[in-house]
Amino acid sequence: MRFSRDRLLRSPRPHRELASRMVRLGELGCGKIGELAHQSGTQKLAQPPSPLTEAEFESLFPELLQQRYQGCEVVREWLQELESRAQERDWLDWLEKAGETWLANPPEARFVQALQEFGNLGDFPLAQRVGDLGQQLQERLRVNQPPSSPSGTGGITSPMAHQGGTGGSSGETGGSQESVTFENPEAEEAWRRIGQILFMAGDDEAALILANEAIESFPDEELLWAVHGEVLYYLGRYEEAVASYDRALFLNPNDATALCNRGLALSNLGRYEEAVASYDRALFLNSNLAQAWSNRGLALYYLGRHQEAVANCDRALFLNPNLAQASSNRGNALSEVGRHEEAVASYDRALFLNPNDEKAWSNRGSALKNLGRYEEAVASYDRALFLNPNFAQAWGNRGNAAGNSRGCFYSVTLSLSPHLQNPALDQRGYEGKVASYEEGLKHCPPDRDPEGAGLLNYCIGRAHYVRGGQDANPYPFWRKAATRYNAALDTLSETHSPEERLKALRELSRVLFELGQLEEAAEVRRQGSDLLRRLIQQSPSPGKQRLLALEFIDFQQLTVDLECQDGNPVAALMLAEQGKNSCLRWWLSGWMEEIPSPDFPSLQQYLCREKTASVYWHISPSALTTFLLKPNQDPIPLLASDESEASFPRLRQLREWEDWTDNWKRDYQDYRSDKSESDSPSRDHPWRRDMVSRLQQLGEILRIEALLAELADEEIDHLILLPHRDLHLFPLEALFPPKYSLIRLPSAQVGMTLAQQPVPPITSEAPLLLVGYPDSQGFSPLEFAEVEAESLSLRFERVRPLCGPQVRQGSLCDELRKGEYRLMHFTGHGGYDFDAPDQSWLALSGEEFLRVRELLDLPLSGYRLVSLAACETAITGQKSITTDYVGLSSGLLMAGVSMLLSTLWTVESAASMVLTLKFYEQVLAGVPEPLALAQAKHWLSHCDVAQLREFYEAELERYKLDDVRVRPFLLDQLDFLAERDPNAQPYSHPYYWAAFTLTGDKT
Fold it and tell me: What are the TM regions of this chain, as residue ranges (predicted)?
């Protein structure tokens, strides 16, 4: 007790609350301990407020910095408690002297970061001066900065300063919170000394020795366990840090800061789901912890949940607009979802707060590059390299932008330090790209930065490979590419850069395949597959396991090409099927090591039933392969090299396919933008105007004529189409003659599973769940949706309408759970989430959505048909699908729905209604669904105005004369058609009918 009393009396802080409690303890008459407590408390309260000494300023300053996460008001309260001993002017005077010492001998980077963050607190003089010192010290540190990691993402670098106590209601927004208090002043002194050594001296090992002694002496002090965790975190001993935080939380389960820091340590271990759970607990205790929201967003980013990451960073910035890392993290997530303009704005905000963040400059450049603003991107990368010439990722990114730029607008004489001003860096195109990479290698040599050198050699290899694909004789470039990939593999270690090593192995396998070195390509692919398997097994995060498997699915895709080249079409097809099923399961069900997939006899028996053939596509980084399956035969691979006399036909076909896809997506995006601005589709837009010729080009690329020639002598009238990757997005059915009825499948296994639970054919007595025209907020109304819903309901005897504002998630899910219906018809909007396909959605009333993830939990195996004919269920962005398409259709089929009627783009509402009703007419007449759709599409494409008038007149007859909802609408259409040429065919263009697809099993 006497030792503790001495520490209390020597403490530079007033500790008036603790001293008062000690006086009250003595007044209770607790014997000798009470007497000593009363004496110590009285002496502490009686101490005259002498000015702080230099040593006391130095002792208290780290504690002051630790208040920065609690906001400006808490900092002011902390200073006010010491006001009797030090005014703000006194702090500024001490800072002048301390600053001279720091500038002469710069402290650790984390201390400098803390100074800069403190400077963002507000406009009072002390914060401004601390921030200025931080900027000056950052400049000093920059010149001695070590080589950067190849990763350019950024993220969180240090735990939150610990404040103790419960989460409470306060937080970083400036609510009131008591500073750290200890019942035992010795424990407080130990805590303060650890902080001084950790944050001021940067001596992690010495801090750990003190922290170990502290928790041994005071094993029940929660805050000492928490700071013990922080020390271990800085030492990179994350498992032990988690254990220390767990002990702290055992002693105080309500410590939000410890929970937040625990999440950070878990993230560094790759245990992202556990990290998110830890942040959730912290935010439950204190929803105002901006740093916790930011860190949670970063963990979600690493799980590929980018939209959620953006929302978390938005929340962090709402709570603390000056949190630079949250702005940077937000920019990273926005870039991943294609919102590059917003990403640039986020990086600009981060750089306003911290202009010396080279990773933010580099990531800003990448967002500008994705916007096609290549010279601005180069300038942004140059700023990153001005700050850190050893930043390999920035050199790599600079090369990518320079390679795409058509001319140099920003000379390096204006943007880079003198020792970096190599005139070759002003080149653009292929030469400029390679020049950037080679210059980067000078600053990131293998002996000093092996991972950075590996990254840049990989980039050079990619540049040579792409350049070779543009040349009549690509082999010299491809050989150079192989050499550089091997150089990259020499320095990219499995321990430190396993994913970068995987990329190099993937590209080396690809180029060896192109060079015809099939055995070598197979060996490299095997090495890559083995490494991928180990990485997946070692990852503690199921989400990360799934992302790894999907990102490197092309190892498996390249194996399909190798089997084709070796003359093994059955093995190639079964590998393609396995890949499809894996992607479906991983996207919709999470990570699974064992994926069910059929054997070839079962697959062929299903896909080649009576008068049925199947067309199975497979796209890899090296080839586009079409497999034709006919009864009692091995698959027939239709390779580009079969009949083409052009040089490198396989590569040429793949390039033509990629160019065609890019043009279609770009024009469609532009078309949708025009449409959203004018609220009406533009018939003269290139996307619609050139659709016929573009589909003809697609047929040539896919060699449809050669495929049809293989079917010419067969009695085949039904085709099953199994697209791969981006092929899911396009109207493949329009490439085939009308003699064939067609249906799609995401994989053969999906169809075979559905065939085991056949649902009776549709009749007028089949129960129909009619989900009509929800008033979805933020979406334009579908003009004919109400007419379509009402007219369809008249064709069925048992209808449960759920329309307009009634279309809520709860009510819709309740109806779906009943299992009473055989059909569901939805007339509303739908959409695709590229980053998280299981989050693809149907828009309900208000701001509610029904997502694929929720559909998978519903009992839908009794539904023969779900119609989403009014929805745009394909991708609307320009990203390419590298795994396989998984969206609403796949999700509904996986949930048990037999067939899905949907559209690839939003068709003009009147045409959509007419075709949909014609389709149902045929189905109710007993026509199988694939043939019914083919007949409805053929009718719409050939009908004239006179036939349309007959259709509307027949619909009009279904309604009573006193109907005021639908009859006026139909009469308006008849009046409109009366003014048209009766022989005109208004819907002959494929825009009106080619978008409709049927997916599933017709058994």
Answer: none
3-state secondary structure 510-575: HHHHHCCCHHHHHHHHHHHHHHHHHHHHHCCCHHHHHHHHHHCCHHHHHHHHHHHHCCCHHHHHHH
Right CATH number for 148-356 from 3.30.390.30, 1.20.1050.80, 3.40.50.920, 1.25.40.10? 1.25.40.10
Summarised one tens digit per residue, pLDDT across range 298-324 is 999 999 899 999 999 999 999 988 888
> Could you tell me which residues are beta bridge partners of residue 615?
628, 721
CB-based burial, 182-207: b 16+ in 10 Å, e otherwise: bebbbbbbbbbbbbbbbbbeeebeeb
Tokens for 568, please give them.
Answer: 């093994």
The domains of the chain are located at 2-46, 55-61+72-142, 148-356, 372-444, 446-552
CA distance 314 to 306: 12
SS3 849: strand
Q: At what angle do helices 272-285 and 256-268 cross, to 10 degrees?
A: 170
Q: What is the pLDDT of residues 655-665, one digit of tens each?
A: 899 999 999 98
Q: Which two tokens stand for residue 754?
A: 């559905």
Q: What is the 3-state secondary structure (H, E, C) of 410-457?
A: CCHHHHCCHHHCCHHHHCCHHHHHHHHHHHHHHHCCCCCCHHHHHHHH
Contact by Cβ (8 Å): 189, 146: no
pLDDT interval class at 781 (50, 70, 90): confident
CA 803 to CA 800: how far, in whole Å?
10
CB distance 865 to 762 below 8 Å: yes
The model's pLDDT over 162-215, given as tens digits with 9 standing for 90+, comes to 544 434 333 343 333 334 556 677 777 777 777 666 666 667 788 888 888 888
Q: Look at residues 335, 407, 344, 418 and name the one whose alpha carbon lies nearest to residue 375.
A: 407
Question: Which H or E run contains 196?
Answer: none
Per-residue pLDDT of 688-715, as tens digits, reads 999 999 999 999 999 999 999 999 888 8
Helices and strands, counts by H and E, the chain: 44, 14
pLDDT in tens, 570-619: 999 999 999 998 888 877 776 555 668 899 999 999 999 989 999 999 99
Q: What is the C-alpha to C-alpha distance for residues 984 and 1002, in angstroms, rounded to an integer?
A: 35
Average pLDDT, the chain: 85
**How far is C-alpha 835 from the chain's CA centre?**
5
Calpha distance 459→216 (Å, rounded): 51
CA distance 523 to 520: 5
The strand pairing partners of 996, in sequence order, are 903
Q: Which of 596, 880, 630 minimizes the C-alpha distance to 756?
A: 596
CB atoms within 10 A of CB 23: 17
